[in-house]
């Protein structure tokens, strides 16, 4: 056995200390695989088409993807699709804009002022759980038969969700940032614009995703109850006539609209939240 000198022992310890160590501080950064999602969707559609082509399931109960696309093309060529889509889109945009604007104002008021918080949270907690579509008959009685009750129903649903997301975002802003700005005698409007608004913006944009879905569900429900045009009316009529290919075509349009809104909000997040 060879004897090790103190210098050899010191050298071996030094080598162990300088050995590179794998970096473990990358954080939690999940990255979605675009191709995996597309391949899974293509496989599901292919299996669906195969089941329909082999007549394993009656097309009345489950039309094939090609049958749904064919029905959608026929509706587009006849002009009926654009009539229904434009009517629903106008109601969604009007109701969503009205509910979002009022929800942002009320949400900031609740988040910034004590009296507004005491009063606002009480009313929001009491009225938010009510299904907004249940209020539609009362809104028809108040506003008459027309577009106003449908837009008001959508606005109500969007308003409460937006209010909650806004004042939750304001509450989540670190208070040390606000105190720091106050210690430098920064005016209150500047604090709101430069500190509170950017800090609450992630929560507000996340709320937009929820309110877009709420608006879509409410417009379909309102159109099914009382409307002559709209995607909800079209889906209801197709279901009553057992035209399942057209019914699924209407559902496909709703899905595409939801995907488009989600993509738009993602672009807004990338542009407005680039500092994160």
Features:
276 residues, mainly alpha, MetI-like fold, 78% helix, flat
Question: What's the gist of this structure?
Answer:
This protein is mostly helical and 276 residues long. The protein has helices at 6-17, 34-53, 65-78, 80-112, 114-127, 136-143, 147-172, 175-183, 188-226, 231-240, 244-272.
The helix/strand order is HHHHHHHHHHH
The chain-level mean pLDDT equals: 86
- Total strand count, please? 0
- Number of contiguous helices: 11
What is the CATH fold-level name?
Answer: MetI-like fold
Protein structure class: mainly alpha
* Rg over C-alpha atoms, rounded to the nearest angstrom: 28 Å
Biggest sheet features: none
Oligomer kind:
single chain
What percent strand? under 5%
Describe the structure.
The chain has a single domain (58-272), classed as MetI-like (MetI-like fold, Orthogonal Bundle). It has helices at residues 6-17, 34-53, 65-78, 80-112, 114-127, 136-143, 147-172, 175-183, 188-226, 231-240, 244-272. Helix 4 (80-112) packs parallel to helix 7 (147-172) and helix 8 (175-183) runs antiparallel to helix 9. The termini are far apart. It is mainly α and 276 residues long.
């Amino acid at each position: 056995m060879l004897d090790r000198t103190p210098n050899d022992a010191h050298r071996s310890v030094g080598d162990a200390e300088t050995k590179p160590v794998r970096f473990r501080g990358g954080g939690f950064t999940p990255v979605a695989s675009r191709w995996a999602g597309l391949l899974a969707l293509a496989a599901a559609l292919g299996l669906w088409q195969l089941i329909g082509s082999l007549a394993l399931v009656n097309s009345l109960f489950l039309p094939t993807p090609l049958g749904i696309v064919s029905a959608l093309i026929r509706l587009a060529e006849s002009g009926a699709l654009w009539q229904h889509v434009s009517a629903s889109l106008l109601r969604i945009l009007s109701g969503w804009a009205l509910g979002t604007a009022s929800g942002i104002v009320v949400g900031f008021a609740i988040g910034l002022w004590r009296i507004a918080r005491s009063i606002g949270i009480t009313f929001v907690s009491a009225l938010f759980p009510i299904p907004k579509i249940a209020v539609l008959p009362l809104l028809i009685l108040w506003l008459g038969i027309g577009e106003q009750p449908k837009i008001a129903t959508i606005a109500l649903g969007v308003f409460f969700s937006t209010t909650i997301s806004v004042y939750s975002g304001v509450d989540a802003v670190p208070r040390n940032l606000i105190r720091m700005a106050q210690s430098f005698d920064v005016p209150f409007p500047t604090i709101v614009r430069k500190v509170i608004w950017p800090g609450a913006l992630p929560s507000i944009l996340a709320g937009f995703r929820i309110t877009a879905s709420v608006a879509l569900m409410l417009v379909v429900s309102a159109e099914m109850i009382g409307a002559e045009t709209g995607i909800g009316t079209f889906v209801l009529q197709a279901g009553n006539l057992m035209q399942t290919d057209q019914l699924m075509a209407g559902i496909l349009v709703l899905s595409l609209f939801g995907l488009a809104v989600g993509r738009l909000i993602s672009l807004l997040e990338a542009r407005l939240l680039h500092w994160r």
